[in-house]
């Protein structure tokens, strides 16, 4: 599956840790950053694929599961470290679930927000992925 765990450089000090995401941390030019927070217990996010957009997800705090499907296989990745992230390439269905209390999901994206880039219907996604 076209996903990858990428380590984020970490600067450890007695004063605490610092991690930095720069353009060369991810294999795309960063166009947008957003974050999910105050996710109620049991809620799910995502539930879509992107035609072009690539994303890099980081659990800044707490943990959550990312359920991935490329039309052929399903994989579940648990994110729970602020110093590593999950690269999701385009054409992959993702659902985010099992958010721990107080968790924060940072999303670094290769594109600005374009609703037309989303595939929000799973059957449509299956057709889209078999055509590729
Ligand atoms: P969505 O991408 O569906 O959220 P998630 O995948 O985390 O469940 O977006 C939720 C809503 O927020 C939707 O109405 C579109 C809007 N939105 C923006 O306006 N700008 C953005 O950059 C993003 C990511 C979402």
From TrEMBL:
It comes from the Bacteria. It comes from Flavobacterium gyeonganense. Residues 1-128 form the Sugar 3,4-ketoisomerase QdtA cupin domain. This is FdtA/QdtA family cupin domain-containing protein. Pfam families: FdtA. Gene3D superfamilies: Jelly Rolls.
């Amino acid at each position: 599956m076209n996903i990858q765990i990428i380590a984020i450089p970490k600067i450890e000090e007695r004063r605490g840790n610092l991690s930095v995401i720069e353009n060369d941390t991810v294999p795309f030019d960063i166009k947008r950053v957003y974050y999910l927070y105050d996710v109620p217990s049991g809620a799910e996010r995502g539930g879509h694929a992107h035609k072009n957009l690539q994303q890099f997800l980081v659990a800044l705090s707490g943990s959550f599961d990312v359920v991935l499907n490329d039309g052929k296989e399903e994989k579940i990745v648990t994110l729970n470290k602020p110093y590593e992230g999950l690269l999701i390439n385009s054409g992959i269905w993702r659902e985010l679930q099992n958010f721990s209390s107080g968790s924060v999901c940072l999303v670094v994206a290769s594109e600005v927000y374009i609703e037309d880039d989303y595939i929000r219907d799973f059957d449509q996604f299956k057709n889209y992925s078999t055509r590729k």
